[in-house]
């Protein structure tokens, strides 16, 4: 990207205005070590500071205002934790309070009575008086009056940084030093024909205006340019990976559909396939017959029949003489899959087994031997499947459920168990928004089961406040008396969170008291596996009427007779998690209910999540809303996995740019797959840099 990398690799210590202490703060708090890190630390919003208001014009409805006034008094009131600093600011129309609850020591040294300041912040009313909490403050000088006018960048910061003078305004000051120096070291990283075709702003201009915008119109062009560039190279990388796999990685050819598939399809299907299931089976069948390794993502909402589709694909593998494995992230889910497949296959001569961390060593040895000799046709398991001692005679198909819960390296160990990489089917019940799927799984083919099996009655979702608890309990009792069962879910955000465990225990005791004569059981992640399975088995058999649990039951637990799920403190859950939990009911012909219980006081985001849940049962609509509310990192753990290290693009809002980037990338690679044409030389160079930075995971989905 840069013609003089040495400039961008310069330690942040050497930037004017930083120094040793601020340098340590920047490294620790924002991971900014070099000029490059700061230069690519983009603003998260912009504020228009063209106007100065008078204090008499202030009202609480204003989002942000800019004032010019003199400090009359600085006073620190209260003690220890309740300490705050109150500053009186005055102009020729009135007086207003400025309040600080943090960084008091540092701010009290900075602010001087009798001096004029530029003040910027959000006004509010407290005790009938207007005040501004933690405003940005700048002493009035000729330079500050010039600098503070116009469109101004706002940067993320932390309390520690603010205490060291690096609030948003402090970071902007550093950018004003760095940006003019850095611009001369910026090279164009898109070919000129692409810039002309898409009418994109040149890169130098875009980088200058993203930090120091001239006006709103130019800022929008700068954002468009940099967002396109980021998403375009992401799509180029993913598409080249896919093309590379399809042209260089040979796959097994499953050329026939024979006895196993036909006998199951004609005689053993528990219910007719939906049109969506038929379409997906056809797509997968074509993939596995091409002689190229299949890498396909199977998306389907809770209860859409993904496991049955996976089994039909496994039977095609068996018909061609190959073994299959299905890997799930938890023992409960692996066991559930094993029991489901075993029930489906009860009338067919198929050998199937289960291997998990708790499988006894004596049994394990037998399974290992049968796999290696080819006698075991289907193996279901957890991480235990990737152990070195698990060997296959001819592994042809790998099915991975809820794959985002596995690390890339873990999955790679499974592929390595066959000389020719097996076909891969990745399943998820977490509906992924289209924009996120294109980015997370851009190198996979995607199949979607977008129909539920016939006869499913939609789940009714209601929101109830804690004050209505007795009414909710009466309703649950009525359902249980009809022969139904209920889940009661408590949040457990962290297994070590003592308060959450106590809430679960007290909730369990309360349910026992509220439902005398009914069997109430409890389950959470810290219980021994055998105890969890015993409780779950009791609930599945109908011996337990009410299961009080944490989110350990979020994925995979299947008890068709359960018709109610009560989710306590629903405001503490994310949308996707609430939707997954709701999917534990509505799995039979019985009318089912999801009750979201919350306190009366709710934040805006929590209320939005609850409203969406009550309004919609469509997992894909819910996932789109979740992406808007929370961003991509929280939805499938991508923040932790580092898959989405986007610096400026936002998937929730930049779907059109992403779509355009993918279309352009596809056109370029269709014409020049190896990027050998002179006009694409710059693209080849940039992609080589990206490959060096990220490593090559092209064989791994």
In summary, what is this structure?
This protein has 701 residues and is an alpha/beta fold. Helices cover 42% and strands 18% of the residues. Strands 6-7-4-3-2-5-8 form a seven-stranded mixed β-sheet. A seven-stranded parallel β-sheet has the order 12-13-11-14-15-10-16, with helices on both faces. Strands 17-22-21-18-20-19 form a six-stranded parallel β-sheet, with helices on both faces.
Fold and architecture overview:
The chain has 701 residues and is of the alpha/beta class. The strands form 4 sheets. The protein has a 7-stranded mixed sheet. Strands 12-13-11-14-15-10-16 form a 7-stranded parallel sheet, with helices on both faces. A 6-stranded parallel sheet has the order 17-22-21-18-20-19, sandwiched between helices. Helix 11 packs antiparallel against helix 13 (306-319) and helix 22 (604-615) packs antiparallel against helix 23 (619-630). The longest helix has 33 residues, at 216-248.
Q: How is the secondary structure organized here?
A:
Blueprint: H1 5-8, H2 19-30, H3 35-39, E1 45-48, E2 65-77, E3 84-91, E4 94-100, H4 104-110, E5 116-121, E6 123-126, E7 129-133, E8 136-139, H5 142-147, E9 151-154, H6 159-163, H7 168-183, H8 192-198, H9 203-211, H10 216-248, H11 259-268, H12 275-288, E10 295-300, H13 306-319, E11 323-327, H14 331-344, E12 352-355, H15 361-373, E13 378-381, E14 395-401, H16 408-415, E15 423-428, H17 434-440, E16 445-449, E17 460-465, H18 469-481, E18 485-489, H19 498-514, E19 520-523, H20 529-541, E20 546-549, E21 562-567, H21 575-582, E22 593-598, H22 604-615, H23 619-630, H24 638-641, H25 655-671, H26 681-694
Parallel strand pairs: 4-7, 10-15, 10-16, 11-13, 11-14, 12-13, 14-15, 17-22, 18-20, 18-21, 19-20, 21-22
Antiparallel strand pairs: 1-9, 2-3, 2-5, 3-4, 5-8, 6-7
């Amino acid at each position: 990207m840069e013609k003089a990398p040495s400039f961008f690799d310069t330690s942040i210590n050497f930037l004017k205005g930083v120094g040793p202490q601020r340098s340590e703060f920047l490294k620790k708090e924002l991971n900014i070590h070099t000029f490059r890190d700061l230069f690519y630390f983009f603003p998260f919003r912009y504020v228009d500071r063209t106007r100065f208001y008078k204090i008499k014009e202030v009202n609480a409805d204003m989002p942000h205002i800019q004032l010019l006034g003199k400090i009359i008094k600085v006073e620190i009131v209260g003690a220890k934790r309740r300490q705050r600093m109150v500053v009186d600011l005055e102009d020729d129309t009135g007086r207003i309070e400025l309040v600080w609850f943090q960084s008091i020591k540092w701010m009290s040294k900075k602010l001087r009575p009798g001096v004029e300041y530029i003040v910027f912040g959000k006004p509010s009313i407290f005790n009938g008086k207007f005040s501004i909490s933690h405003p940005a403050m700048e002493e009035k000088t000729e330079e500050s009056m010039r600098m503070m006018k116009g469109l101004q960048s706002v940067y993320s910061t932390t309390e520690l940084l603010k205490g060291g003078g690096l609030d948003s305004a402090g970071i902007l000051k550093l950018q004003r030093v760095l940006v003019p120096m850095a611009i001369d070291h910026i090279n164009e990283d898109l070919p000129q024909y692409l810039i002309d075709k898409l009418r994109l702003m040149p890169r130098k201009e875009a980088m200058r205006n993203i930090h120091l915008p001239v006006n709103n119109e130019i800022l929008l062009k700068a954002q468009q340019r940099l967002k396109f560039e980021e998403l375009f190279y992401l799509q180029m990388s993913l598409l080249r990976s896919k093309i590379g796999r399809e042209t260089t990685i040979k796959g097994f050819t499953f050329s026939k559909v024979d006895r196993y598939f036909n006998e199951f399809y004609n005689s053993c299907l528990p219910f007719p396939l939906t049109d969506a299931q038929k379409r997906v089976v056809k797509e997968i069948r074509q993939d596995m017959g091409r002689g190229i390794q299949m890498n396909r993502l199977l998306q389907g909402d809770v209860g859409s029949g993904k496991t049955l589709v996976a089994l039909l694909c496994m039977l095609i593998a068996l018909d061609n003489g190959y073994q299959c494995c299905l890997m799930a992230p938890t023992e409960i889910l692996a066991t559930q899959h094993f029991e489901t497949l075993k029930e489906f296959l009860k009338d067919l001569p198929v050998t199937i087994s289960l291997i998990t961390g708790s499988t006894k060593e004596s049994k394990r040895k037998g399974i290992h031997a049968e796999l290696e000799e080819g006698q075991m046709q289907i193996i279901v398991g957890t991480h235990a499947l990737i152990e070195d001692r698990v060997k296959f005679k001819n592994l042809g198909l790998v099915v991975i459920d809820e794959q985002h819960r596995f690390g890339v390296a873990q999955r790679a160990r499974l592929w390595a168990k066959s000389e020719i990489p097996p076909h891969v089917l990745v399943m998820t019940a977490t509906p992924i928004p289209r924009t996120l799927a294109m980015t997370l799984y851009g190198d996979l083919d995607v199949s979607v089961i977008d129909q539920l099996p016939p006869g499913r009655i939609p789940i009714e979702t209601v929101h109830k406040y804690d004050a209505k608890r007795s009414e909710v309990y009466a309703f649950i009792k009525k359902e249980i008396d009809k022969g139904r069962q209920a889940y009661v879910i408590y949040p457990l955000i962290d297994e070590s969170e003592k308060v959450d465990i106590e809430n679960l225990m007290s909730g369990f005791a309360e349910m026992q008291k509220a439902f005398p004569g009914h069997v109430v059981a409890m389950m959470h992640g810290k219980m021994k596996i055998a105890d969890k399975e015993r409780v779950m088995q009791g609930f599945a058999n109908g011996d337990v009427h009410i299961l009080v649990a944490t989110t350990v039951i979020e994925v995979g637990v299947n008890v068709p007779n359960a018709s109610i799920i009560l989710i306590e403190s629903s405001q503490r859950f994310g949308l996707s998690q609430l939707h997954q939990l709701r999917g534990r009911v509505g799995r039979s012909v019985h009318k089912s209910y999801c009750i979201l219980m919350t306190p009366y006081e709710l934040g805006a985001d929590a209320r939005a999540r609850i409203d969406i849940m009550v309004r919609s049962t469509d997992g894909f609509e819910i996932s789109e809303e979740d992406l808007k509310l929370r961003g991509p990192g929280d939805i499938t753990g991508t923040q932790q996995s580092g898959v989405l290290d986007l610096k400026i693009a936002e998937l929730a809002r930049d779907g059109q740019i992403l779509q355009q980037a993918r279309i352009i990338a596809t056109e370029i690679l269709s014409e020049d797959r190896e990027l050998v044409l002179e006009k694409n030389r710059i693209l080849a160079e940039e992609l080589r840099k990206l490959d060096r930075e990220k490593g090559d995971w092209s064989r791994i989905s």
